[in-house]
């Protein structure tokens, strides 16, 4: 056909094509206006509304009331069950027939008692295909149900999506009808859309963009929207363009469907169960139609939910896992926070996760998958390796506020030297749409051009949007190998990483933590969740140690395998990356605290029954005495309270051997007593022979002397234990972010309610108390405690907190000069600068650590310990612990109310390693436990470790092996050492094993009678499978 040549006006041609497919302009005559044909009303529509999440079988028995399009339902968190009765007109034979459903809220369509598809407008899922080509023998009269959750994809935030939910929102049904769908129009629209996007994305400097422009323009010329017979010639032109191939060097995109589902966030855990079902049933449906479609899916917990609640769907998923289309990834129980869980918690994330994947799908995951977490511990590479994983995918560091992370594909090296191949999808998203823009960005932003020629493109709506759509698949299918665009393979994580590994010679290495320069308030927000996590980690540790002691002494003892697994799984669930960070709504906080309560209740009962089981041993018997349990791997001599009243007479100084028990014998006579003296100037001096502390009337620590070296720890003229309040208004992410500028708003807390007074004047414990006013609504009461024989001074703190957008911290300016501070992390520690030389340094104005942080110069240092906090900063010589925040979104009541926590300061001679700072921080977090009603005990240890550098972290029954224990040790000093693990039992068998407890049969442990010799590299974790009874 002859046309006059087009003029040189790129804009008119481009806009002509855009208008031809616009859903806003010219729909009366353009192609988009032809997408749908005739419509037909439903036969009937009725609804049953309930405040509960009920099952299908319960729902269908309810009384349904007539309703219509345009009606509003809800309120928020309700569920509407719609009964949809329809009859497809006979005249539509040969046509593709859809049920079109548009509503607020998240819908699940049920047919023949089974969930069949998600219907969520925000996830572009508003159509259910009733027939692809209506035949006479197909059912025309059909009854369906739509289960509609009254919440959006991102909950129900009032005003802004992260604001606290609006409980009174209504949810409207906008469309419910039958419609003829013109598939040929859709195909052509997709061709046009891709060409238009190529024109726009490649820009005016690229000749390929002009080829796309002229192709699209000629297609408009050829295509008459009213005449479907004209479509094929237009489509041929598009296909000719898409089939023009690349050369061999083009970048390769590994496209994988994905649906990031937060296990709880702006909605409660219970809703996530339905989000998973809605999303995955949609994915399975897409797989049935598109055998090449691949979907990656993480979080064992979510699979477990679907298995429990949607068994039919779960078996379909199992089928597609076997086919290699539905790919479980990640290997963990949930996508946990990457900073706050303890080392052992991280191990259990993998242990529970990998065991689940192996049991249900026959395979372990090969990749750790954590796209959305707020930073990544430098111990993760070793933990991954131990769980059989040496590949890692995330992209969250693209959110860095200041510094651009320099790599997309690299080796990540942990504190012990373990390396994992790591990939950040260069498109900086895990919710792509298969559009040209996604492909171009992926190539353009790849910071390892020439080093890594493969990248991931993860496409699909997350958080209940139901993952990928047919349209996304159709887009990607068109440009598998189209000149000027990256090659697109529907791929798997395994193929991506294998390709990257094969060509890894030029890749760089990043050593140490992956610190996210954002969301640093999440180390502090929702203090009760942090407290619950720390307490429950300690309790489950103690239950396991106690149960193993019982097991070793009493063959009749039944190790609580099942209960412990249930409790661990609850704890692991709460470590999800919007729960433990505190970035969730109030409903989630309530659930999380309830789970902690359950762990505390059941865990305490299990610990008690383990201790009681010890009573039937010959060397322990029931009686009226008291024994003391020490679950840590060093001997401890400490003051313990025998009753809750805290009165002087109810204290005792006890000595308990490592991993063992002893009778309660008060050794008070053997150590120097604590004295507390009110001095002439009103200050109070507390001494215990190790430390001498002076507090002023406001509770400031004006002096802290290390007696042994006569060294002052507090900086001249400064106050330790100085509470400070900051304005805390971030740019947007309220619960998440604390911004650098908050530091400029520092205000010391100076208003005394009750000046220092002596509470306990000495003996085994000296203590003073005081109260300060933070504001008209908030106050602090503190008891400062010095125990006999204790190298640290404790600050037992109560805060009544009713602030808005304030941040409470406590400061200790110390007489130490060091360019680095040290922070405890999982199974080790790392250093961060105390100066602000570069942007990489100053952006670490708020950092995370676990039980302790330390700043030391040669020969002397000060450690700051805590029992439930995670936020720290050390700037120059000022050590700061972050205590409480008061964000208002997404939980309007976050952190309001009463808080109790303890921190401690420990000045020390020598290095923190030599001073046993690590052990003392453990002691603060793992109190000695009293066992009532026991007599006749000689002190007894189940295990001893010869090296002070090596910590025996975990003792548990081996998974699935009743006669074996797993013991896990790690090197904590950062040194290479030899250590001997001893036990009174003859060791029958000892194997090195991985974190999944799989023995390495080529590596028996070196055993000599009841001693196991071990060689450690710095920060190495060693797990042993032991048979000792
Ligand atoms: Zn997330």
TrEMBL record:
Q: Which Pfam families match?
A: Alpha-mann_mid (PF09261), Ams1-like_1st (PF22907), Glyco_hydro38C2 (PF17677), Glyco_hydro_38C (PF07748), Glyco_hydro_38N (PF01074)
Its top-level enzyme class, in one word, is: hydrolase
Question: What EC number(s) does this enzyme carry?
Answer: 3.2.1.24
One GO molecular-function annotation for this sequence? alpha-mannosidase activity
Q: Which SMART domains match?
A: Alpha-mann_mid
Q: Which residues form a coiled coil?
A: none
Q: Which domain of life is it from?
A: Eukaryota
Residues in Glycoside hydrolase family 38 central domain copies: 517-596
Task: Share an example GO biological-process annotation for this protein.
Answer: oligosaccharide catabolic process
Keyword hit for Magnesium: no
Reaction(s) catalysed (UniProt annotation): Hydrolysis of terminal, non-reducing alpha-D-mannose residues in alpha-D-mannosides
Keywords in UniProt for this one?
Glycosidase, Hydrolase, Metal-binding
Concerning PANTHER family, the annotation shows: ALPHA-MANNOSIDASE 2C1
Family of the protein in this entry: Belongs to the glycosyl hydrolase 38 family.
Instruction: From the Swiss-Prot or TrEMBL record, give the protein name.
Output: alpha-mannosidase
